[in-house]
Amino acid sequence: TIKYAGLSRNAEHYQLFSGLLAAVTEEFATTYKLTPFRTAFATSFAKENEAYLQNQAYEGTKTVEKANETCDRRFRLFERNVEVGELSDEPAEVEAAERIAYAMKPYKGAPSKPHAENIAMVKDLVEVLESDKYAADVETLGLTSVLASLKQSVVDFEAAYAARAGERLARTSMDGMKTIRPVVEQDFANLAALITALYLVAAHVDNDAERAAALEAVVDQMNALILDYHKKLARRGIGSSSQTVSTDPEVPDTEE
After folding, report:
1. What predicted TM-score, i.e. pTM, was given to this entire model?
2. What is the pLDDT along the chain (256 residues), one digit of tens a residue?
3. DSSP string across 93-121
4. CA–CA separation, 35 vs 79, rounded Å?
5. Residues 55, 177: contact at Cβ < 8 Å?
C-alpha cells in the first residue's frame, strides 16, 4: 500500500510516481496487454508532471517582486538625488536638477503603478535621461552610475515579469497538483492491481515460471520505490520506516 500519499510533498509525490511509471515500460505493458491501463496512468502523470514543473516555475513570483522592489528603490534614489540637487549651493547643479525634475514630471508615481505600466514608464524615463538633452545634467549631478543602476534594474524587472507572464498563461490551462494527484494514485492502483493479478495467475495457476519471473521483477521494482518513499516520509516524522513494503509478490504491496 502507498501510505500517506496525501501528506507527501509535491516533489516526493512526483518522484515516486515518475519512478513507478518508468518501472512499467511500454514494452512490458504491450506484452502483458496492460497498455490501456498504463496509458491512463501515463496520461494522468503527464498532467502531474506539467503541474509540478509549472508549480516550481511559479516561484518566479518572488523574483518579480524582488525585482520590482529593487527598481522602485533605485527610482526613488534617483528622484531624491535630483531633489537634493535643487537645494544645492552650486547654480549649475540647481539648474541641472531643475531640468531633470521637469523631465521626470510625466513619470512621477511610476513605482505605484501596475508592473507593466511601471516598467514602461521607467524604461522611457531612462531613455529620456540618457539622451543628449539630459546626459550632461545627469553627469553634473553625479548621477550617471545611479541612472545606470536604475536602467539595469528595469531590465531585470522586465525579464522577470515576462517570464512570470508565460508561467501564468500555462498555469491556467492545467489541473493543479491538488486535483491531479489523487487521479494519478488511482490510475497507478488500477495498473498495479492487474500486474499483481497476472503474477498470481502465472505463478500459482499456470505455473509459468518465465512469465511469473518477469512480472515479479516489476513488482519488486515498484515495491522498492514505494519502500524508499515511505522511508523519506518517516524521516519527516510521517509514519514509521519500520512500516515497510513487502517485496514478496505473493503478498504484493503496490496497490493504492
Report:
1. 0.54
2. 788 888 888 889 999 999 999 999 999 999 999 999 999 999 999 988 887 776 665 556 778 889 999 999 999 999 999 999 999 999 999 999 999 999 999 999 999 998 889 999 999 999 999 999 999 999 999 999 999 999 999 999 998 888 766 555 455 444 578 889 999 999 999 999 999 999 999 999 999 999 999 999 999 999 999 999 999 999 888 875 444 333 343 433 333 3
3. HHHHHHHHHHHHGGGTTGGGS-HHHHHHH
4. 66
5. yes
